[in-house]
Amino acid sequence: MAFSSVPDGFTAWLQDFASAAQQPDQIDEFVATVDSAIIGAIPEIAQDRTLVEELHASTRAHWNAFLVTIVQDYRLELPQEAINLSLSIARRHHDIGVLLKVYRVANKAVFDVLAERTKEGPLPEGLGRDEVLISVWLRAEQWIDDSVEELIDSFTAERASLLEGDRTRRIEVVDALLAGAAPSPETEQVLGHALTAWQTAFVLSASAQERPAQPLHEVAARMCLALGLPTAFTTLPGSRELWGWVSTVAEPDLDLTALEELMSTTRTRVAIGRPSHGPTGFRTSHLQAAAAHRASWNSTTRCNDYRDIELVSLLGEGDLTREMVRRVALPLLGPRKGEQALRETVLTWLRCRCNADAAGAALFVHPNTVRYRLSRAQDLLGRPLSEDATALELALQWVELHGAQALDDPG
Q1: Phi-psi bin for 126: left (phi > 0), alpha (psi -120 to 50), beta?
Q2: What does the pLDDT read at residue 8?
Q3: Which of 36, 139, 372, 408 is 20 to 30 A away from residue 350, measured at CA?
Q4: Is the pTM of this model over 0.70?
């Protein structure tokens, strides 16, 4: 690719300009001027001695390579020193904005240098001083723009590689903790998560039938904000499931009703473990959240607290559990609204410690309606509701969570 056409005398002028600019003292002055502007504008580089040294090497190599090709057909000769600087910025986990700002500041600084160096001296015949400056500047600007495009590729490839490496290390550490391994001195640093405080784990998921309205990690951030919790440490074990842990100094008081609208609008669901303390709590709370997640898989409830469904979570969905549910509550498991109302009333009454007034308040019905339904359920069961009340409550809670249809669907 050739530069835009110029008068015949301009090529010879460019050769003289390049020869003068390649003198050691002129190169040192150029590097000092441009890099001073960059360092003054970017604290991430100014505070890192290694990055400053790599910046000097990159600027020097860029200028030399540009001057060599300035009178030839255009071709970008991206120096290795420039690539090294982009890789170092990536390896320090700086945003790509730092790299882009280097070249944005350099762009203006190079223009100022060229404006100064074309201010005096003889000019090629037929060109004014502004035309000379613009002609040189267009070459420099094209070099800078093309360099940025290539360096973005090297930066993003390196960041992706680093992130994948960090992700792999975090997954290995999480797997070890969940397997019961004791944390090493480096564990908290690898995870970026405090293990010595209270741990509250959650499993955030979206079903195959519903596309989440937001990426799961964004939903997790909004969820923590709604609960008044710090940002969670998260990992993605699958495309539709996210595991998270929140570390807090004190045991959190969680009210999941604050999440119901969020889970509904984002078409996601969450299961939360019991807050537990320390590295052991990291594992325990996750196991509880995972158990609540499995137990509520078929539930219409989008927010499930392990503390509310602990016994049902432990029951699982095995054949013996299904047999127990049928044996204890079968007459109440029909699909009609009347049978559903009986199940809801009996379960609420049992949760309210067999208090009809409290159950009526919870159901927004008169206590006499509760008593009538209890009598009807007792007739269907053929035994007093107080007889083996614990098993009856578990059976009805299992049906509430999984649905009566789950009794005939081993999958």
Answers
A1: left
A2: 61
A3: 408
A4: no
